[in-house]
Amino acid sequence: MYKRKIGLAIILIITAIGFYFTYAFYRVFFFPNTSFNNEISYVFIATDSSVNALMENLSPLLKSPEDFLVAAQKKAYLDNIRGGKYAIQKGMNNNEIINSLRVESLPVMVTFNNQERLANLAGRLASQIEADSLSLIQQFLATDFLKKNGFTPETALAMYLPNSYEFFWNTSAQDFQSRMLKEYKRFWTPKRLAAAKEKGLTPIEVISLASIVHKETAKVEERPAIAQVYLNRLRKRMRLQADPTVIYALKREANDFTMVIRRVLKKDLKLKSTYNTYRVKGLPPGPITMPDISAIDAVLFPKEHNYLYFVVDPRKPGYHDFSKSLGEHNRKAQRYYRWLNQQRLYR
Description:
Blueprint: H1 2-30, E1 40-45, H2 51-58, H3 65-74, E2 84-89, H4 94-103, E3 107-112, H5 118-126, H6 133-140, H7 143-148, E4 163-168, H8 173-187, H9 190-198, H10 203-216, H11 223-235, H12 243-254, H13 293-300, E5 309-312, E6 320-323, H14 326-343
Antiparallel strand pairs: 1-2, 3-4, 5-6
């Protein structure tokens, strides 16, 4: 009888131990382990992240970081932490969280537009993908890449076409640049290349001119007419005399691209700069901003006319008044300056 009681006690102890370990196993792997109230949260894990760095990002989303670590060790996840953006749904258990972190890296939508310099572009991108601005700018200016693909430091901005693109968050600077080169080549369809050739321009020259057109007017519908003025001047070997290039040259000279310049003064036109198209014939060395695609297509497919000049139309602010002769242009320009002085708009 006594032996039977001992045996029963041993069985109960073993059973209790079994239940404890079974409960512990299920708690660690299959009990919900999220601490947030919204339906889904996102975690960004850096490439080559350490366990400590992983937990620093992940812990705020977990009820029990300790249980997660136990489960992650058992599933050998900590031996191969993958960088990326991951979604964790409310109520997920550790097993589901680890499976998600292993295979479900999510894309991010990367958007950029109208950056004046590569440095501005790098800063904009660094807020959207893992690569930092320093690694991006270094890659943008990589000598071998530029030489191989027909760019220079002055023209490199032309390769980056403003738009929205889908990337994985942990995209490297080199991978980003390679993708942008593919997008650039895809943009230059046979139709666009033929249009550029017809005008005696290379794709990079088209984008350089488009950057001026973009700066001249925000009115998309007016850009083809503005583009034709500059194409007419190029054909006649006239100086472009584009105010936006002078503004860019002034900023470049001051090494301050945050400057706000409302008016170009006569003294500014004398600035010695390869970007000052009042002094230098032809196009500037490269784009003065990242032009919209509408501005690029305006250069490729302009509105044909014989105008050589334009000035802001005070009767229709935001738009321009076009002229065929310098005399006509000067009269319209005087009307504009009188209106401008009345508005008291000074730099």
